[in-house]
Amino acid sequence: MRRIRSEERTAYLAILPVGLLLACFVYYPAISTFLMGLTDANPRVQGLEGSAHFIGLRNYGQMLGSGEFWASVWRTVLIVLMVLPLELAIGLAAAMILNEQFRGRAVLRTIAIVPWMLPPLVNGFTWSWILNGDYGALNGLLYQLHLVTTYHHWLASPSAQLFWVAVAQVWTRFPFAMVVLLAALQSIPQDVVEAARVDGARPAQIFRSVTFPMLLPAFTVALAVEFIVTFQIFDVIWSLTAGGAAGQVINPFTKAVMILNYEVVFRNLDLGLGSALAYLILVLSMGVGYVFVRMLYERGA
Amino acid sequence: MSGAREMTPARLVRRLGFWLAAIALALWSLAPVYWIVVSSISTRIELYSVPYKHWIPRAPTLQNYVDVFTTGPKYRAGGFLPSATLLYSGVRNSLLVALLAAACLSLLASLAGYAFARLNFRGRSFLFFMMLLLVPLPVWVSLIALFQLMSVLGLIDTRLGLILLFVSYGAPLYVWLMQTYIRATPRDIEEAALIDGASRFRALRTVVLPVALPGLVSVFLVAFLTVWNAFLIPLIFTNSEAAQPLTVVLSLFIGQYEVAWEAMSAAAVVTMIPPILMALFFQHYVVRGLALGAVQ
Q1: Of B44, B67, B90, which closes a domain?
Q2: What is the pLDDT of residues A56-88, one digit of tens each?
Q3: Which residues cross the membrane (chain A) (predicted)?
């Protein structure tokens, strides 16, 4: 009995620091932000000392009824729709390359992981320099390959901006899909593949009816994770197209939901509305991610 | 791709295709990094040459690094400080915050992870559930109240404040990781130590952690990398050279009207050094932890 008591005391002591931090810096502010989303808190209106009023779900109603919100959801969905297929295709191709035995495999694996290790903010910066309309490397490369005759401003149009944001995001994230799919590829028992080969199946057939079905769970995981990650994209846009540093106006054409959230809270100081928006984004990203997984699993089963 | 077998035309085509794909993968992954590195060691004249670019600098120079870290009067951002001051404080802040946050997380995650993995106590599964609930929770759903809380505590624009935030928001993931690693260590040596009269904490330190060391190293490195790369939290909770890390300093430069790309590239390369070292030398530890923590 004494032994158990002391074990319990030890356990509480061991989790106490983490517990305190989570209670003070995560749970308390998360709940209190949610509650603020039910008020009209805005220091610009009420002053710093003024008090906000409880207005129920009106902030959610206002957000869901605003064209600005749906425009930013649409932009985000466009980015997601470009990123997910590209990223998973490149990730799968890279995983299949690295699943072969060849000289330089470890080196290639290391090289391919680098983009994922770098700060996404720096990746956005890197791509903005590559895409630079006056001196950029992409222009130089295409010119020297005689594919263009004049330098081109790649980020000139709104749709081009979304496209290049997606490319930079794919570059940043594809190694994640690659790592997940490579692990799954390596766990496929070789004798199954060998048996199919002995039976005379062609490589494409083996991939379609043996390899891919066994990859499906890993594929689903990568898809769901990357949906959530891409839906909440912020850093890459910030350094590639947002242009909002030092108090300048944020470029509206790539205002994804997280950028909109930043603007509502830290530029407009609309704290109540911003809190509601934060929880809307949470529900949208997690909810859709969850539905994704369910759908794919049910189809796979 | 063993080459011992006989070379039929079909196999030759297949091998050629494979190597082309492998080279394409290497180029796609490396080219942007290569261009930033080349830009950072090019002279301004070569870098801005059009329409032909210098893919290999003819006169490589470290002058850009010297410039951004010494004179740097060309651009001023984030108030009226020269870039050199901002970069120095950025390097210092990034290093201090990332190292200390990673160290705190390793310590706290070991303690709590051990409790969840090995000890019996009332409320264990409830507390574990309440913690796991937070693993996928993004920081911005608590950002607004958090900002007010940090203001009241006087922790805005301090390194201590950043460390507290990174530790708090990283803790659920790393505690969970540590408890899986500790669960995988054999119980019997630990029990032998306990019978010999060692306390639980002593057993954790002298017997359990040495066995779970790869896991601990992984937690430390992934935490360091995550904090080093972070942008949103420091963007919101810092506003001067007292605490701004490198990522925020870089974002201040980007916002300027005219960017001196050769100098900017040098600053970017400095920011890339720790992540690239991780990819080169600690890939094994980092990839697993990052893959598991991907949802965050």
Answers
A1: B67
A2: 899 999 999 999 999 999 999 999 999 999 999
A3: 12-30, 73-98, 110-130, 162-185, 206-234, 276-297
Residue of B nearest to A229 (CA): B295
Q: Any idea what the CATH number is for the domain that residue A129 is in?
A: 1.10.3720.10
Cβ-Cβ contacts under 8 Å for B28 (sequence gap 6 or more): A90, A171
So what's the pLDDT on residue B78? 46
Of B25, B250, B290, the CB nearest to A94: B25
The answer to whether B115 contacts A25, with C-beta atoms less than 8 Å apart, is no
Question: Does residue A114 belong to any structural domain of this protein?
Answer: yes
Which pLDDT score is estimated for A220? 86
Q: Picking from A215-224, B30-39, B116-125, which range would have the lowest pLDDT averaged per residue? A: A215-224
Residue B40: domain span: 9-67
Which ipTM value was assigned to this complex?
0.90
pLDDT in tens, B198-222: 888 898 998 899 989 989 999 999 9
CA distance B167 to chain A (A): 8
Number of domains into which chain A is organized: 1
Most A-contacting residue of B231, B238, B269, B270 (CB-CB within 10 A), to test interface: B231
Contact B120 A123 (CB under 8 A): no
B153 CA: distance to closest CA in chain A (Å) = 11
Beta-carbon separation of A108 and B32 below 8 A: no
